[in-house]
Write a structure and sequence with these properties.
Layout: H1 6-12, H2 16-22, E1 36-38, E2 45-47, E3 51-52, H3 63-78, E4 83-85, H4 93-104, E5 111-117, H5 121-135, E6 140-146, H6 153-168, E7 172-178, H7 183-196, E8 201-205, H8 217-224, E9 227-231, H9 238-242, H10 260-269, E10 274-277, H11 284-293, H12 301-313
Parallel strand pairs: 3-4, 4-5, 5-6, 6-7, 7-8, 8-9, 9-10
Antiparallel strand pairs: 1-2
Helix pairs in contact: 3-4, 3-11, 4-5, 7-8, 10-11
């Protein structure tokens, strides 16, 4: 069997032929169910593969692109996944997601996570209300304060107090914070937040190209009972560029990885502190591939070291 990078797959084009080339059947035909993990605060099970909407859902009213994204969402749901992450700062992504979930009547199957930027109370309230309108729902599963690693500490505390008010009224089921910029230098601040606040979720930047959260943050999240969401799992395609023209090593079969996408995602999911990873995609075949990363075996500690050595050697 040949192994393709996503760039090669894109050259081949979309459709069933690509899925066959990837060695992946449609998600609802898979014999293996999608792995799920508990949200520590409640014990609710959450599938480990989610979806991000930055860039790929910022498509406005383009009918053709909306139809394509609708198919991606349907594939996502058919494959057993639930969590879709968005934000007001992602252009039209919130509104597009809200429209597509309403059109497909899939809202009740989706765990929506959105964000609010650190601001004054009035601005924060207005932004949250706007998110409800765009998403066409008053009740949202998870609200997160966006990029808190370098934010004013008092403002973060004030914002969390506001989110707890809304959570107590039933608007939100869970609250949390996110960070995705200069992760390494933000980790100590995020650890401080984990220890000082009873958060339900924290979203961080984590990939085989950016592993700084492994040093202490993931362990602290586990200790404090905080679910971890992972953004930028492919390091903005940097990992795919690193393996262009190279085959997935044969030993990756030991943890059921047959594509580079699965290789990169399974590395992250092998950390039990990770609750859900959020790759973004606008292609059905990529969604099928992402979903398959959440099926089958995961690499153990020794295998993860081997994976890191392999990728690091590529430069």
């Amino acid at each position: 069997m040949m192994h393709y990078t996503r760039r090669k797959v894109l050259q081949l084009g979309a459709g069933l032929g690509v899925a066959t080339a990837l060695g992946i059947a449609p998600a609802n035909a898979q014999a293996k169910s999608l792995l799920a993990r508990k949200i520590p605060r409640t014990g609710e099970m959450l599938p480990v593969i989610g979806m991000g909407t930055a860039i790929v859902f910022n498509i406005g009213n383009d009918a053709a692109q909306r139809a394509e994204r609708s198919k991606v969402i349907q594939t996502f749901v058919d494959g057993g996944a639930r969590l879709i992450d968005t934000a007001p700062s992602y252009g039209t992504a919130e509104a597009v997601l809200g429209d597509l979930l309403a059109d497909t009547k899939l809202r009740e199957k989706i765990f929506i996570a959105t964000k609010v930027r650190v601001a004054g109370r009035d601005r924060s309230v207005a932004e949250q209300q706007q998110s409800q309108k765009r998403l066409k729902t008053e009740r949202i599963e998870l609200i997160q304060i966006h990029n808190v690693g370098f934010a004013d500490r008092g403002e973060v505390a004030s914002q969390l107090a506001l989110l707890r008010e809304w959570k107590s009224k039933g608007t939100y089921r869970y609250i949390g914070v996110t960070h995705s910029q200069d992760q390494e230098n933000a980790n100590e601040r995020l650890i401080e937040i984990l220890r000082g606040e009873k958060l339900d979720f924290m979203q961080v930047n984590y990939s085989m190209a950016e592993r700084s959260v492994e040093q202490r943050l993931l362990g602290t999240a586990a200790e404090t009972g905080t679910a971890i969401l992972v953004n930028l799992p492919f390091a903005r395609a940097r990992l795919f560029r690193a393996v262009t023209g190279k085959q997935v090593p044969d030993w990756a079969k030991e943890f059921d990885a047959t594509t580079w996408g699965q290789f990169f995602l399974k590395y992250i999911l092998a950390s039990t502190a990770v609750t859900c990873v959020l790759p973004g995609t606008d292609k059905v075949e990529y969604m099928l591939d992402n979903l398959n990363a959440g099926r089958g075996r995961l690499p153990d500690a020794a295998m993860r070291k081997r994976m890191v050595q392999f990728i690091d050697a590529l430069g």
